[in-house]
Design brief:
Layout lengths: L1 H17 L8 H15 L4 E8 L4 E8 L3 H4 L3 E3 L3 H9 L3 E3 L10 H5 L4 E9 L2 E10 L7 H37 L10 E8 L9 E7 L5 E8 L3 H21 L3 H15 L5 E8 L5 E7 L5 E3 L6 E2 L4 E2 L13 E4 L5 E5 L11 H11 L5 H12 L9 E8 L8 E6 L4 H15 L4 H22 L6 E9 L2 E7 L15 H8 L2 E7 L2 E9 L9
């Protein structure tokens, strides 16, 4: 009868720490409830859970009853040291019947008067997640059944902690994904941009990325990269590399120099990581892109009327591979209507065939057209209905052709600082419109002079605005510069010659003054052969 009662009592105690209602509790509520039940069924005075931080290799007090001060004071125990550290390192239960500075590291335990400690590891699939321990303020003999029961409770806690961490990691990965990839590509006049990103397998985030950003110099930075590894750790490294590259890009005018600085930073602060990166800088007029590759596959270049080609870009070692190497840059012409396609190896590489086959398929499918359409066709041809084995990032940069160029309209404050913005916008527009270098120089000079006159003469201390409009009219570019002010008379013997300068470099200049302001209309042939200096 006593044996039956003993078996029934054992089953009751097991059910008490593992029954179904616990499955509906989460987080701190679940930990507190399990600790309370364990403390009662084992006749203990204290119960605590310490979870292992893998980066620091320390056990951190996370939940406690009867010794809540452990959590409030942020107790941390090094892995492998002290009572809890030994339980974690050996992955075995441990019983202590003497609690002092020679047996435990956490002085709170003996200061509180704990006489006996029993600890067991939190294990999932052989991996240590932490330690569960109970204590008494009196001498107490814990039995083998007590140890088995405490391990059962630890297993329940370990599974819950693992599930919570997985859920938190997925949420963190999704949030990291949203924060690190551009929510939308920037709107750049006269460029067409499109991108795709798909994580490999069934992951939600990984180490591939793309980026597009404007630089203070008027150049445009474009990046595509691939961190070796998967899931959240690779995404975290990717985020650090992305931020560092952006910072170096602000101060460096050569993409090879940017990648050299990025490599040095990675090898110093994050030894052991490796990544391939392709960084390009598009000139303000979009005629050329300067590229440097750190172990990354060469981009595909398309020019109107010609088949796509893989650029003959020199491929330097990846970030993190070798120290103190000389990196190289190359300059590639971007024709009006042409495009550059940047991608990661997940788009073209498969386990069952050489990568050259994927590269050739990509080269054949990339053709002139809208950037988004190019992305869609590439993904359809190389990914299709399959789940990608590896992460895929794809970025297409296409330069508009002359037929797509609409008017340029600027409305800026009439201050000297605005003149550089006018010149930068005009250079982009004139380049996209196919205007010859000589005509571009003449128009920049003439329009710049007209804008300078507005800044100096049109307004008083209250200031105003200058409006610039450019459009194509047959073989000519027609530019108008307008203000809403009342001009002051020229001051000094060498002033008032701006109209003469404009007339010398353009085909026609017309000045109209009204009570609402002044408008200067400038006409210049697109190419030198059409110019007539009327």
């Amino acid at each position: 009868m006593s044996m039956v009662a003993s078996a029934e009592d054992r089953l009751r105690r097991i059910g008490f720490v593992s029954d179904n209602p616990l499955a509906h509790l989460e987080g701190q509520d679940m930990l507190d409830e399990v600790l309370d039940r364990v403390r009662r069924v084992l006749h203990a005075d204290t119960a605590a859970v310490l979870l292992l931080e893998h980066d620091s290799r320390e056990l951190v007090a996370t939940a406690a009853l009867g010794i809540e001060v452990e959590v409030r004071q942020g107790v941390r125990i090094p892995f492998g040291r002290g009572f809890a550290g030994t339980v974690a390192a050996t992955k075995k239960p441990k019983l202590l019947e003497r609690i002092d500075s020679t047996t435990v590291l956490n002085q709170l335990l003996w200061e509180k008067g704990i006489q006996t400690l029993l600890g067991v590891p939190l294990l999932v699939g052989g991996e240590v997640l932490g330690v569960l321990h109970v204590g008494t303020f009196r001498q107490h003999k814990f039995t083998d059944d007590d140890i088995e029961l405490l391990q059962l409770a630890a297993d329940r806690i370990a599974l819950s902690v693992q599930a919570q961490r997985s859920q938190a990691a997925r949420a963190a990965a999704a949030e990291l994904q949203r924060s690190l990839l551009p929510p939308r590509l920037p709107s750049v006049p006269f460029l067409d941009l499109a991108a795709r990103y798909v994580p490999g397998g069934r992951a939600s985030v990984a180490g591939d990325w793309y980026d597009v950003f404007a630089l203070p110099s008027g150049w445009l930075g474009v990046v595509i990269g691939d961190v070796v590894g998967h899931d959240l750790p690779a995404a975290v490294v990717m985020g650090r590399l992305r931020s560092a590259l952006r910072a170096y890009a602000l101060d460096c005018g050569d993409p090879a120099e940017v990648l050299s600085k990025l490599d040095r930073k990675a090898q110093h602060f994050e030894p052991g990581i490796m990544a391939t990166v392709l960084y390009g800088m598009v000139e303000p007029g979009f005629e050329r892109i300067h590229l440097s590759s750190a172990g990354h596959l060469p981009p595909v270049l398309v020019r109107p009327g010609q088949p796509a080609v893989l650029t003959g870009l020199q491929i330097d070692p990846p970030i993190g591979a070798l120290r103190d190497i000389r990196r190289h840059s190359a300059v590639i012409e971007m024709s009006p209507g042409g495009l550059v396609c940047l991608y990661t190896d997940g788009l073209v590489e498969r386990r069952d065939r050489p990568i050259d086959i994927g590269l050739e398929r990509l080269r054949k499918v990339v053709a002139p057209g809208p950037a988004d359409s190019v992305c869609a066709k590439a993904m359809a041809a190389l990914i299709g209905d399959d789940i990608p084995e590896d992460d895929v990032a794809l970025l297409v940069v296409r330069r508009h052709d002359a037929a797509e160029v609409g008017p340029l309209d600027l409305d800026l404050p009439a201050v000297p600082e605005a003149l550089k913005d006018v010149r930068a916008a005009m250079r982009r527009w004139l380049s996209a419109a196919g205007v010859s270098p000589d005509a571009t120089a003449d128009l920049l000079l003439a329009v710049g002079e007209a804008c300078t006159n507005v800044v100096e003469h049109a307004y008083g201390p209250g200031g105003g605005t200058v409006t610039v409009h450019l459009h194509l009219e047959g073989p000519d570019v027609v530019a108008t510069v307008a203000d809403r002010g009342r001009w002051r008379a020229p001051r000094g013997s060498n002033r008032g010659r701006g109209i003469l300068l404009m007339q010398r470099c353009c085909d026609d200049v017309f000045l109209a003054r009204t009570g609402d302001g002044t408008t200067v209309t400038i006409r210049r042939a697109i190419v030198e052969g059409n110019a007539g200096r009327r």
